[in-house]
Description:
Blueprint: H1 34-38, E1 43-46, E2 53-55, E3 65-67, E4 70-71, H2 95-99, E5 100-103, H3 107-116, E6 125-127, H4 138-141, H5 143-154, E7 158-162, H6 171-179, E8 183-188, H7 194-200, H8 207-219, E9 224-231, H9 240-250, E10 254-259, H10 266-277, H11 282-292, H12 311-327, E11 356-357, E12 369-370
Amino acid sequence: MAEHIHRRGRGAALNPANPYERFHLEEDPAELDEKERRAIPTTFHTDASRTILSRNDSPDVPFTWSLNPYRGCEHGCVYCYARPGHEYLGYSAGLDFETHIMVKHDAAHLLAETFERPSWKPAVVALSGATDPYQPAERRLRITRQCLEVFLRYRNPVALITKNHLVTRDIDLLAEMARLDIVHVNVSVTSLRDDVTAGMEPRTSRPARRLDAIRELTEAGIRCGVMVAPVIPGLTDEEVPAILAAAREAGAVRASWIPVRLPGAVEPIFREWLERVHPGRAEKVLARIRSMRGGELNDGRFGKRMQGEGPWADILNALFRQTTRRLGYEGRAEAEAGSEAGPRAEHFALTTRHFRRSQGDLFGLQGGRSVNTP
């Protein structure tokens, strides 16, 4: 196996070849100085997209619209299903995904323009559909916050999903939205062990901080759910009951789970990490993933990709249902066909009846005119 250099604070240790590019540059570790071997900087690029909402028609994903302020993610989660999307931009799904971040500086303005169009029918928007809206750059760039200000101004409902305690910075906006029943926040908790998350999700908030976020949001009157995703059989599946109990104690009212997915280049990135960081468990983990994916490490079929199949999937599904029922989570526990991108809007009763358009300047709104919706 070729030598791969793991950089400090990064999840992936390699840059798989981009299938859409004719040439691929392979690093020679012998030519790297000590600084280059230890760290790699993040480069931010302007994303000049002129539309901001993505429409989804997948039967496995329970929302129609999503908004991603960033493409690529510094969190560096080794399992991230969004990694292959970077290949369409000319980058690799590996280190490039974590170190070349596309920033949509005009996101809030484009969102307001969308809501102003007569063709826009108010609906729940997932924030984000792919990368985390509260990744480290958000602390400085504040693009997600600007978008939330637009959601609040127009009273359009939004469902958030994040792994970062930074979401609590925006409690002032989220609490006001919660009073209107137009927001729900899902916090993703994959493990309660710092050693696991530090290697698997290097730049995310550690588990205790995520639980603190649920607690702070709940105390402010903001309904929170916990997303136990992805569940990695043989590595984190044993923690599912403990995660659900800790999140419930912190105030989470809903819960969902998804088994790990390894589409495209995510598979070699994940395998390299697993064999490097958890060599004693690697074969067990891979065997259990195959048992849930028809003998392969990934199954992209609709109806199967979000839930898996087979005895091990059935065991995890039953464990999840029994635990959520025992802990008193609200409603029907969502164990099947969940979404990485956020909660099922209908389960959180987010309303569109408050939606309104502006009376003039998109960002100088003093009032608004209501739009009747069903």
